[in-house]
Specification:
The protein is an alpha/beta fold and about 220 residues long. It contains eight helices and seven strands; from the N terminus they run H-H-H-E-E-E-H-H-E-H-E-H-E-H-E. Strands 5-4-3-6-7 form a five-stranded parallel beta sheet. A two-stranded antiparallel sheet has the order 1-2. Strand 6 (about 150-160), helix 8 (about 160-170) and strand 7 form a beta-alpha-beta unit. Helix 1 (about 10-25) packs across helix 2 and helix 1 (about 10-25) runs antiparallel to helix 6. Mean pLDDT is about 85; it is low at about 195-215.
């Protein structure tokens, strides 16, 4: 798992550039996006030993003399749906944990910003056995099987409240486990036409206002 991060630091500048172009954030935020992913990956690795541990609970006094053993087992196939605004950082809060626990993963990248985070996932997937880590892109309305398929055992979704309600409704069909992180709509500001004569004409504070639409 540690070796799966090979190349992330070397490719961070290029990944940040692509994330900036896709999302509309300043390049430094794209750089931080990648860095947070790496930090969260390493944090998950620090808990690897806990996965293999089992705990034996002793019998309760004056009750049935039975011991209880608590162990951790993988769930199976996990779908992770990430938003556009911090795709790499948010993916880092669920992908390494799912893999360390022994699951296979399908990452659904945001339709408005698929390339930057796809590059990161593809490099990781190349270091893992075939089929362990998968990635898919496309319109949300065409992705219902990522939730309703009976082989999916857990769904992690980060996005809007509206999207969360839709995910919860679909997951209820099979009582699929859910983790939802729901937020508000990110500000969108854009120009239909913009002519730049020199970089000095840009008020860099305006770059903080350039954002994509919400991930619903």
């Amino acid at each position: 798992m540690a070796a799966a991060l090979v190349g992330i630091a070397e490719n961070r500048d290029k990944d940040a550039e692509i994330l900036s172009q896709e999302i509309g954030k300043i390049r430094h935020e794209g750089w931080i996006d990648s860095l947070v992913f790496e930090m969260r990956w390493n944090l998950a690795l620090s808990h690897v030993a806990e996965i293999d541990k089992s705990t034996i609970l002793p019998p309760v006094p004056d009750h049935i003399p039975t011991e209880t053993t608590v162990t951790y087992q993988p769930l199976g196939v996990v779908t992770i749906i990430i938003p556009f605004n911090w795709p790499a950082a948010i993916l880092g809060a669920s992908l390494p944990q799912a893999l360390i626990a022994g699951n296979t993963v399908i990452v659904k990248v945001p339709p408005t910003a698929p390339l930057g985070v796809s590059r990161i996932v593809q490099r990781i997937a190349a270091q893992l056995p075939a089929g362990v880590l998968n990635i898919i892109s496309g319109h949300d309305e065409d992705m219902k099987s990522l939730i309703t398929d009976t082989r999916i055992t857990k769904v992690c979704f980060t996005g809007s409240v509206k999207g969360g309600k839709s995910i919860m409704s679909l997951a209820s069909q099979n009582l699929t486990r859910l983790t939802l992180e729901l937020g508000v709509t990110t500000l969108l500001s854009y120009w239909k036409t913009l002519r730049l004569m020199t970089c000095n004409l840009i008020d860099y504070s305006q770059q903080f206002l350039i954002r994509q639409v919400k991930f619903a």
